[in-house]
Amino acid sequence: MIRTGRIIPAARKESITLAAEVIRKGGLVAFPTETVYGLGCDALNPEAVARVFEAKQRPSFDPLIVHVAEKAALDGLTQTISLSDHRLMERFWPGPLTLLLPKRARVPDLVTAGLPTIAVRMPSHPVAQELIREAAVPIAAPSANPFGYVSPTCAQHVADGLGERVDLILDGGPCQLGVESTIASMIGSRPELLRPGSITLEEISKVVGPVVRARESLTMAVPGRLARHYATHTPLTILTGHTVRSVRPLGERAGLLAMTAPRHGDQRYCAIEVLSPSGDLREAAQHLFAALRRLDAQGFDRLYAEPCDERGLGMAIMDRLRRCAEPLT
Ligand code: AMP
Ligand code: MG
Known about the structure:
By secondary structure, the chain is an alpha/beta fold.
């Protein structure tokens, strides 16, 4: 197979046909979803899955999310589906909700990092849906970026990060939601939220009752939940009030990630990225990763980020910012 990393327009029918063929032959295709761009491969082909880990330099203890286009595909992947899972699927699929389900033996262990559970979701993006249908296999896809870096929200981000390590990049324009899927588990005694995303804890609670936010623990140290992840190369500090702003070292060249438009132009920063001029959280989430990448590309000494309210979608935005702000150890 020719390793090109080339970007082709997803809108063309022949692009999908070609991409599906690459997947079926064990290749890697980056494709748009409503959350971020995924690096997809045939979930049931262990060699293809191994190539995804290699391309991303992802440690093998970090399990992948498997994408399906219809519920019937779950029969081959999972053993049982609880009533709560069914309800969540009814309400939120297709969409940005990943659920943990007991896995079948035929799912390669590499996909689930040896865990007895498989993470599955049904994306709503038409290109993702068409690709999965045409490939006629479940597609394992982590975000299409080198391990630990900020996730890609457009085709160029994928090319910048993975280059020729990906066979084909389907360009479907910028992602609408911009943060990775919500991950929830109905497996334990209580519904758990493992990773906040666009589908909020409040929304899930309305369907299955009270949801607990899973605590970070060493036993579940999977990287979507590692302390430092989704991180810029430039160190980032979350502003906690006027103190942090005023104690900034003299002469430091800094960029600001602002939630809404600053009322006065702030001369102290070399560059300011505004996530949503009107303070809309959906818009802020959509622009978050692209803005972080633009700031990161400018070689500043440090980036500062304004926090947002941790309700609804704000929980996912703050989760990603905190993981980005965590110091390198
Ligand atoms: P992403 O890198 O956005 O594709 O998300 C993958 C993340 O999903 C992992 O880092 C884990 O946090 C989570 N995940 C995937 N599969 C499982 C699983 N079987 N059990 C627990 N978490 C999982
Ligand atoms: Mg990722």
